[in-house]
Specification:
This protein has 455 residues and is an alpha/beta fold. The chain folds into two domains: 2-60 and 297-371 and 416-454, Aspartate Aminotransferase, domain 1 (Alpha-Beta Complex); 65-294, Type I PLP-dependent aspartate aminotransferase-like (Major domain) (Aspartate Aminotransferase, domain 2), CATH 3.40.640. The protein contains 17 helices and 14 strands. A seven-stranded mixed beta sheet has the order 1-11-10-7-6-2-3, sandwiched between helices. Helix 6 (113-123) runs parallel beside helix 7 (140-148). It is globular, with a radius of gyration of 24 Å. Bound molecules: pyridoxal-5'-phosphate. Pyridoxal-5'-phosphate binds next to helix 6 and helix 7.
Length: 455
């Protein structure tokens, strides 16, 4: 097997590096499974699909008896809000377990990842006139969390190979108004945290990690979310640990975490005193029950995602047509919200990404382009400039410079144009033979790349 892999790898490298003509036949021999199908007609053109329709992917969200039991227990108990049982209730239990799992001193359950991020911004005292640097390639919840406190989200461009914030651009975007950096661990893989933490230390900035996609992933021995000052998670239905809608803030600074608690509890502190401004963003006992039932098996699925991701990457190694997400030194594991790759059309006879995805879907492998546009291309960028409050908070020259900067994100544009993902929840927790189906389908489409233009 190893010999075959090496043969194929070397072969594909050769294909990628040089002219492809004449080299395809040995590649077919070197690649292991189902040669008759690979050699055949594209399913999109009437051939037999690599993966027949009866083969199902694992269902998502994960449901098991223990989760159901926890919800039933909570339903019967009548304790449905965390304030009814602040120490031993389902939310309090979840907070202790999740903090233990990721190695954080404190954890606060919230109603969503967006709420968790917004709580951090507010609790740090970041507000009108302040700036927070973050990524244009993320869920809008990241930016929304900064806008909620009426601070200015400043977007830095991406490293187009890792899809993560480019630390050099982060540093260029710092102004005297910058208060924090909010790195997003996109796809659940670690951002370039050594450099981001060094920049934050140099400029005395806070770091709020958006680890919404990165539960359980590790970087240099630390879980994502525990590297910066505060870390945030999402347990929305598609996430690897899911309860429909839910989130968490984690941190080690007791005073800051107390402030987060107070903010998320409509400004009311743990002693019941109404001391500040805040929304009501508490996790409820049902959400926590689903999570408590799920945590005992979450690590198993996390390990499986990592195993399958490593397997896919080993099969794609040296293949220039689909390049897996670059990982930074120090990455020990990933949350793998998605297994992400860059599609290089020049290696597919210049077929568009859409044509490639169409051919692949017909083979029974549904991959997707994920986020269509960077957030710098969405309407909020103009909307906030029209708001009187932003005009009051920031000098006109600053807003003009901000608008200009936000209009140019070439790294992010490239990521959006090339991105192809396999969902981490569902397909990435399937078996090795399912991963082989994915690779075989990719190779079949690759070998038929001269036919893609007709799709
Ligand atoms: C990177 C990232 N940040 C923030 C969020 C927001 O989390 P939620 O949907 O739980 O509000 C998400 C969820 O999609 C996300 O993927």
């Amino acid at each position: 097997m190893a010999g075959k892999d090496i043969g194929r790898r070397n072969f594909i490298s050769t294909l990628a590096a040089a002219s492809i003509a004449g080299a395809v036949a040995p590649a077919l021999q070197a690649f292991s499974a189902v040669p008759s199908k690979r050699a055949g007609l594209l399913a999109a053109l009437g051939g037999e699909p690599v993966r027949p329709a009866f083969k199902q992917w694992p269902k998502w969200p994960h449901v098991d008896e223990r989760m159901i039991e926890e919800v039933v227990k909570t339903t019967k108990s009548g304790i449905w809000s965390r304030i009814q049982s602040p120490v031993n209730g389902a939310v309090a239990t979840f907070e202790k377990q999740f903090a233990g799992l990721i190695g954080s001193e404190y954890c606060i359950g919230t109603g969503s990842g967006t709420q968790a991020l917004a709580i951090c911004v507010e609790a740090m005292g970041i507000g009108p006139g302040d700036e927070v640097i973050t990524s244009p390639y993320t869920d809008f919840g990241t930016v929304s969390a900064i806008l909620t406190s009426r601070a200015l989200p400043v977007l830095a461009d991406l490293d187009p190979d890792s899809y993560q914030l480019d630390p050099a651009d982060v540093e260029r975007k710092i102004t005297p108004r910058t208060k924090a950096i909010m790195p997003v661990h996109i796809m659940g893989l670690p951002a370039d945290m050594d450099k981001i933490m060094a920049i934050a230390a140099k400029h005395k900035l806070k770091v709020i990690e958006d680890a919404c996609q990165g539960a359980l992933a590790k970087y240099r021995g630390k879980s994502l979310g525990t590297i910066g000052d505060l870390g945030c998670f999402s347990f929305q239905a598609s996430k690897s640990i899911a309860c429909g809608e839910g989130g968490a803030v984690v941190g080690n600074d007791e005073a800051l975490m107390d402030q987060c608690f107070t903010v998320h509890n409509h400004g009311t502190n743990r002693k019941g005193k109404h001391v500040t401004i805040g929304p009501k963003n508490r996790m409820n006992e049902f959400e926590a029950s689903i999570l408590n039932g799920q945590l005992p098996t979450a690590t198993g699925r996390f390990l499986l995602r990592n195993k399958n991701a490593a397997y896919l990457s080993s099969k794609l190694k040296g293949f220039a047509g689909l390049v897996p997400q670059k990982q930074y030194e120090g990455t020990e594991s990933g949350g793998y919200y998605n297994y992400a790759m860059s599609y290089k059309k020049e290696h597919f006879n210049n077929a568009t990404r859409q044509q490639f995805l169409k051919a692949l879907a017909a083979e029974g492998i549904a991959l997707s382009p994920y986020i269509p546009n960077g957030l710098h291309r969405e309407a909020w960028t103009d909307h906030i400039l029209e708001l009187e409050e932003y005009k009051d908070m920031f000098p006109a020259a600053r807003l003009k410079a901000w608008r200009e900067a936000v209009s140019s994100m070439p790294g992010c544009d490239r990521v959006c144009a090339e991105m192809i993902v396999l969902p981490g929840s569902g397909p990435l927790i399937a078996g090795t033979t399912d991963m082989d189906d994915i690779i075989n389908a990719i190779m079949k489409v690759y070998e038929n790349r001269d036919k893609l233009a007709s799709l």
